[in-house]
Amino acid sequence: MKPQSVLIELQPKFERNAPAALANTQLRRNMGKATQTIRAKRAAVVDEMPDWEQLRTAGRQIKEHTLYHLDTYLLQLEAAVQRAGGHVHWAADAAAANAIVTGLVQAHGAREVIKVKSLTTDEIKLNAALAEAGISAIETDLAELIIQLAGEHSSHILVPAIHKNRAEIRELFMRTLGIAEISDEPTALAAAARSYLRAKFLSVPVAISGGNFAVAATGAICVVESEGNGRMCLTLPEVLISVVGIEKLVPTWQDLEVFLQLLPRSSTGERMNPYTSIWTGVTPGDGPQAFHLVLLDNGRTNVLADEIGRQTLHCIRCSACLNICPVYERTGGHAYGSVYPGPIGAILTPQLVGVEHARSLPYASSLCGACYDVCPVQINIPEVLIHMRGEVVRQHQDTGGLAAALEPEALAMQLLSQVFGSQATYEMAQRLAQLGQGPLVRDGTISWLPGLLGGWTAMRDLSAVPQQTFRQWWRERDA
Amino acid sequence: MQVALFITCFNDTLFPQVGMATVRLIERLGHTVQFRSAQTCCGQMHVNTGYQREAVPLVRRFVQIFHDAEVVVAPSASCIGLIRDYYGHIAALADDTALAREIAILQPRVLELTEFLTRMGVTDVGAYFPHRVTYHPTCHSLRVLRLGDAPLRLLHAVRGIEVVALPDAEQCCGFGGTFAVKNADTSMAMLGDKLRAVRDTRAEVVVAADTSCLMQIGGALQRQRAGVRTMHLAEVLAHTEDRQ
Ligand code: SF4
Question: Is residue A9 part of a domain?
Fold first, then answer.
C-alpha cells in the first residue's frame, strides 16, 4: 500500500484547479509580488558566493552518497540517538507514525502539543490524527498558525500563507484570536500572535517538530527557522518528539557546513537564517528530558528504488523552485492539491503516492528548467518530470485496458508515432495537411498537438499549413 | 564541411522558410548542405508527453539516418536538447545497449544552428537586416543548450540591425509543448506577460531559436494585431543586402 495522505484530495487535478486560481486577481497579485521579491533576494545573496556552483555540487554529492548507503547511516543514527539518551521509532507509513506520536503524547498525559513548522507532519496529517485522539496541536510558526486559524491548507512549503496579504491576516486575527482592534502593520500582527503563543510555550508539556537534517555519526538533529518560535518549542517543554523522513540524513557534522550555506540563501534569501537549533538526545537539566525520534518512510524507499526519480530525495525543502516557477507564480500552491506544491511537489507527490493518484502533477510544468538552475542540490527537475510523465502513461497503458488505449490523446500519439515511422506515411500526412486533412491538421489548420485547437485559439491565431513543405522546396531546388 | 540538415518535422511542414534560410546561411558560409529525406521527427512530443515507448522507433530512426554524418545541424533548440539529454534515457527504456552506444557516439556531432556557428568560429555571418528586433531566449536555448549570449552576439554583428533588450527575457513564454494544451489557461497567463514585455520594446521583430515558441508568441501577437512579426534567428541571419 502506498501512502496517500500527502495529497489534500485523492486525485489532484491541476488542470481543473488552475483556472479558478488564475481568475483570482487578488491571489495573482499577492503571489506575483511575493515570489518576485524573494527571487530577487535569493539572486542577490547567491551572486555574492564565488563558490556557489561547487557548493551545489557538494550538496548533491553528499546526498547521493548518503542515499546510496542509507541502510548503514540509518542504523548509525539510531545507535547514536540512543547513546545520547533518546528513543528511536521506525514508521513505515503515515498511519504508523501517527499512532506512535499519538501514543507518546498520551503516555505523557498531554491534551495539547505545540508544534514547530514541519512539512513531514503535514504530509502524514498528524494534526488530524491527534485531534481524533482528543489532542489539540498548536502551530507556532506564524504563517502556519495563520493557516491553522483560517482552516486552510498551506500554499507554499516555506511561507504557507504566501497567498494572503496583511489586510486578510488582520481580519483573521480579529475573528479568531478574540482581539478587538489591531492595525495591519506586520509588527502589530506579530505581537498579537506572540501574546497568544507565549502562553502556550510556557504551559504545554509536549512539543512536536520535524527536522531539516539528522547527523548519523552523532545523532544530532537540526532545525532551521526564522522566528525563534521553533527554538521555544525545542527547549521549553518536557518532551520533544521529532518526525523525520529517512532522506534527511547526512553522515557527519561537517556535512552540515555545506547545507547550512545552501539552505538559507536558497530559501529566504538570507546569508544565514536567524535560528539554527541543533540537539543531541537529552541533556540532564537542560531542555526536554525525553526525546523521541520517529523515522518515517511513507513511500521514500519506493522513490529510492527508481534510478531517475531518486534524486528527488536530495531535496532540502528550500522552496527556491517554487519561487522561480512561472507556473507556481501564477496558480499559487493550492492548485496542486498536494502538501508539496510547485516543481518539487510535481515530482515528489506522484512518487510518494503512486502516479495513478497524481496523474496531472507531472504535467503542471512547461519544462522551462528554471527550477533546475536554482535547486541548491542540483535536482534535475525537468528530467524527473519527463520521467514521471512516462510513468503516468505507462501505468495507464498497462492497467487501463482498451478504454485507456482509445482515449483521444493515446490514439493521436499512436497515430503520430506511425506517421513519423516512415518517410512515405510522413510525406502522405504532409500532403493531407496541405489539403486541410489527416492527422496533422484539423478544421483546415494545424493540430500538431492533440487537442491543440480548443485551448490554443482562445488567445492565439494559427497560420494555415503552407502549400510547400521544406522537403518539396529542396526537391525542386535539387532538380 | 558536409552539414546534414535536420530540419525537424515542425519546420518542414509548418515553417519551411526557416529551413530555406538555414540552408542559405550555411551554404553562404562555404559549407555543403545535405538533406537526408528519410528523416521525420526526433520524437520530442512523444517523449515530453510521456509516450516514451512510442518514441523508441523514432529515436532508432534518427540514429540510423544520421549515424554517419560529419555533423548534424538543426534550427531548433528544443529538438537538439531532447536528442542530447533524453535519447540516452530512451535507449535505456528500450533496454538497448547497442543503441545507447550509437547515441553516445552521435550526440557530440548533433548541433543546434547557433552552436554550429560558434563551433565554426563565426560571429559576423555577413547578414543585413535593417530592423528593430528583440531576442527571446527560449528555455531550451537558455537552460538546456546553454547558448548564453551567442545568439545575441550573432545578431549584434548583423549590419543595419537595432537590437533592443527584452525585459524579463529569461521568463518562459508558456508554450511547453502539450502544456499549452493541457494547461491552456496557465500557458496563456505566462504568454500574456511575455507579450507585454515584447510590446514594451517597440521592436518590429521578435527573434528566437525555436519555432514552437515563436508560434506561441506570434499567434498571440497576430491576434492582438500588434504589428510585431516573429522570425527565427536563421531567417534574420540569412538576410543579405541583395537577397531579402
Ligand atoms: S527541489 Fe531543490 S529547489 Fe526545490 S525545494 Fe527541494 S531543494 Fe529546494
Answer: no
